[in-house]
Amino acid sequence: MPIYAYKCDACGHTMDALQKMSDAPLTDCPHCGKPALHKQVTAAGFQLKGSGWYATDFKGGGGASATAAPAAAAASSSSSDSAAPAACGASCACH
Predict the structure, then answer these.
(1) Which pLDDT score is estimated for 79?
(2) Are 25 and 39 contacting, i.e. CB atoms less than 8 angstroms apart?
(3) pTM of this prediction?
């Protein structure tokens, strides 16, 4: 069951309530008794940590195309190495 945060508009009292999602929202403040209790928007109560699916699959943002691009660049550079003149060889800095 989720925990909901409430705040009273009349007295400023804040509280948390463990409720079912199907339960009606609370309206009466337990501190002052006035019907001025409203739900607050809060952050999620969990964090994704460790080496889960996000860190291993989607963190780089490139997916399969990111790994294919360096392979294509390596293939094009190896073809230019074979076109090097015989005078300078394949290990020179000009190719």
Answers:
(1) 47
(2) yes
(3) 0.47
